[in-house]
Write a structure and sequence with these properties.
With 281 residues, this protein is of the alpha+beta class. It has 2 domains: 12-148, Jelly Rolls (Sandwich), CATH 2.60.120.280; 152-274, Arc Repressor Mutant, subunit A (Orthogonal Bundle). Helix content is 42%, strand content 19%. It has 10 helices and 7 strands. Strands 1, 2, 3, 4, 5, 6 and 7 form a 7-stranded antiparallel sheet that branches. A hairpin with a 4-residue loop joins strand 3 (30-44) and strand 4 (49-53). Helix 3 crosses helix 4 (175-182) and helix 3 packs parallel to helix 6 (201-219). The longest helix is centred in the middle third of the chain and has 24 residues, at 125-148.
């Protein structure tokens, strides 16, 4: 692990690289905003755990009474913003959690992290104040991103369709049925899905089917024919094609190395849609 971090009374930024394995437990109180640039990390307080993947950001609080464990999967690169506890007192519900829930990092958030990192060695009062201002902006951007990505911001009929798809992806389904569930026309439903999620309702359905199939390939010994039948695919050839497009890996590659992380940047569903896959149910 390489790091240039040191204690500062205000906000502080650093970059950390990890190999697979556990970090030493975090026992002293600290609050930090973590942006994963590469790989994945799992944060646990012994009672619950949360995973952060590439391009995701989460705010982690430890008040010092618990030991926080961080596990890294593969080569992991993260950017960290250490935050004064007083800055999060109004939003921090409990120790050892990701606060608020993790978000997909926006371009604005990543840019602010880079600006803060450039001032990580600041020594003058002016630069220290500037770094603190950037830290406040990073925290505000993270909270705003959480609000923007909340499922509650979706129109109710779009949420209803997401709930149905995530629970009934195995069953026969088409746009006629989804528009009936939504209670709006097919054209209006498609327009609103593309506006809020970046994909059509039918494409969202196939993204959910493909994600569940990919998880089954990674975590079970079932054959592709059976997985295809269970996940609503027309054939195992169709499944293989969609899984390759969704994850960047063939079914054989996924099963051979089950630690591979599913790639969120896909041809099937952009990040906006993936936020809501498996959110409802």
């Amino acid at each position: 692990m390489t790091s240039n971090s040191k204690y500062e009374p205000g906000f502080f930024f650093d970059r950390v690289d990890h190999n697979t394995g556990l970090e030493p437990s975090w026992r002293r109180g600290r609050v930090m905003l973590v942006l994963v640039q590469k790989g994945a990390m799992i944060v646990s307080n012994g009672q619950s755990s949360s995973q952060l993947r590439a391009k995701e950001c989460g705010l982690i609080l430890n008040d010092g009474s618990d030991s926080i464990t961080v596990q890294h999967n593969g080569q992991t690169q993260i950017l960290r913003c250490l935050i004064p506890l007083k800055s999060v007192r109004n939003i921090a519900p409990s120790k050892g959690e990701l606060l608020p829930s993790k978000v997909f990092a926006s371009d604005q958030l990543r840019t602010l992290f880079q600006l803060g990192l450039e001032l990580s060695g600041a020594v003058s009062d002016a630069n220290l104040h500037l770094r603190d201002a950037i830290g406040e902006a990073v925290l505000a951007a993270h909270i705003a991103g959480f609000a923007d990505q909340s499922p509650q911001r979706l129109p109710s009929f779009v949420r209803n369709v997401c709930v149905y798809v995530n629970s009934h992806y195995r069953e026969a389904c088409d746009l006629d049925l989804l528009s009936e569930i939504a209670g709006v026309s097919k054209g209006h439903l498609t327009c609103e899905f593309r506006k809020h999620l970046g994909v059509s309702p039918v494409r969202y359905l196939w993204a959910q089917r493909t994600k569940m199939a990919a998880e089954a390939i990674k975590t079970t010994s079932l054959g592709l024919v059976e997985i295809a039948e269970r996940c609503g695919f027309q054939s195992h050839f169709h499944l293989s094609r969609e899984v390759k497009a969704f994850t960047g890996f063939s079914p054989r590659e996924l099963r051979k190395n089950c630690s591979l992380e599913l790639d969120a940047l896909t041809k099937i569903a952009p990040v906006e849609a993936l936020k809501y896959i498996n959110t409802f149910g």
